[in-house]
Amino acid sequence: MEFLAEGRTAEVFVWDDERVVKLDRVGWTGLSHYESGVIEVIVAAGVSAPKVFETVWVEGRSGVVLERLEGPQLAERVRAHPALAEQEAVDFVEFHMGLHRPVEGLPDQVDLLRASIERTELASAVKREVLAILNDLDDGKRVLCHGDLTAENVIMTASGPVAIDWLTANAGVPAADFARSLVLVGWPDQASRGLERFVTVMAKQGARRRDLDQRVLTGWVRVMAAARLDEGFTGPSADRLAALASGENSA
């Protein structure tokens, strides 16, 4: 099979002219089958996503066969056309906000965050502080949250942007979903090369459109950075997340 792309937990290959297969890496068996069910839930909520055809096993690896979306990643478009970075960032914020709608059948974001933070090796005082922030910021309202939305996870099709990689979708707080995206894209100081202007505008516009003051935004970033430490990062990546979680590295 022709290789197309890869992430931490899976690889994507050509299945046929109109479909791709996403195969779990060894050690992550079953994630793609779970994601197929998640996609059904988010499609039922009215969100456009790649069509799921079937779940499969290929050479001992679990996988899901998906519609092949035609178009570049948003990140690719921004890098190829830097002059479009600001407008693309504004459009990305609107697209992200448009995903947030009522949903049923997904795990609770705040419960997941609390469990992840508890499992980290952060200093006890920092962990207590971050958990207190989480409890303070949680307003109890829940909508569909992508949980992993970046410019790499948006395909610019002829009919409009489509979000992919729905494995971490949950029912949660939209401001927290936005903060998760900021942590993923390296805000405030380590944006992916070629996306610096995009990330800067995304952060400013996203906070403005959601009416988030600095205290709330910084609080959610600390929570999301702390929870991300539960994903097995080491070295400089872990150091950056720990600094964000501790409030030592904020804009």
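Second entry:
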Amino acid sequence: MTAALATIGHNNPPTPFDLSATEIGDLFVEAQKWLDGSGVTTDAEATAVSKLLDLLRQAEKRADERRKDEAEPHDKAKAEIQTRYGALIGNTKSVKGKAILAMDCCKRALAPWLAAEEAKKQAEAIAARKAAEEAAERARAAFQAAPVDDLAGRIEAERLAGEAKQAEVLAKDADKDKAAARGGARAVTLRTVYRAEITDRRAVLNWFAANRPDQLAGMLQTAVESLCAASVRTVPGVTYHEERVAR
């Protein structure tokens, strides 16, 4: 280990960031000289490294204060902009802008009508599919009933086949026809959303254990670390390791 701390240099003319960059940069260089992997072995070395740590703490504090001072006008400007626009388009737990509230009300107002329209179109699609199947069955029966030399029978069977094809087209169109409100550039339609609710915790844990063991382990590790930090260190199945660290 080297014997003395280096003198902190200065830039000219320095900005607040330049001051901290130089100060911390010089201390970092000094730290590389002292922290060479050989460890602290004497009282003098312990005193010197402790002093270096103190200087780094002070430099970090000054840098953070300079950062706050430099960022403050930008933070205030950003906060003011966010507040102004938040009243219009904010969409968080604490802020719902006018546009968001109005759009939500529009969707809620349209949902029952769309649901009724969708039910009607589904019924129409079912009826169209049934009509297509019946038309196809009539055509098949006509072909089976008409002898190969019965021209009139064949003509009728072909006519029924044409009707069956048209009915199939109508049925496919009915299947594709979805309820929509088309008053703007983008049609408003219904979509399916899912919300998960745990009703059997043990079953959920068993599923994760069988299908997502790594994910379950990660969630449990995060939970026990949080409890450990809160001085709850009695969870069964957890080994708590004690170590002493410098502060």
